[in-house]
Amino acid sequence: MRKLVKILAVLFAIIVGISLSFLLRSKKIHFDYEINPKYYSEDQSPFENDFDYAFDTLEKYYALFDRNGTYEFLENRDEYKKELKNLRTDKEFFDKMNKILGDLDDDHTNLLDIEEVYDMKDTFVLSNKEEKGEVNVDLINYLFGAKISSLIDKIFRQARAATKNLITQDINKDIAYLKIRAMIDPGTPDFEEDLELLKTYLKKSKNKKALIIDLRGNGGGNAAYTCDYLYPMILGTKDFKETHEYILFRTDEVFKYDPQYPELKSLISKIRESDFKYMEENIPFLKKDKKMMDNIRKNYTHIIYDAGYENAGDFGDEYKFNGNLYLLVDRGVYSSAQNAAHFFRDNNLGTIIGEKTGGDGIGTSPAMVKLPNTKYILRFSHELGLRETESMEESTYTIPDIEIPQKDQSEIPSNDGCVKKVIELEGKNAAK
Question: Which structural domain, as residue segments, surrounds residue 198?
Answer without folding.
Answer: 163-243+308-361+401-430
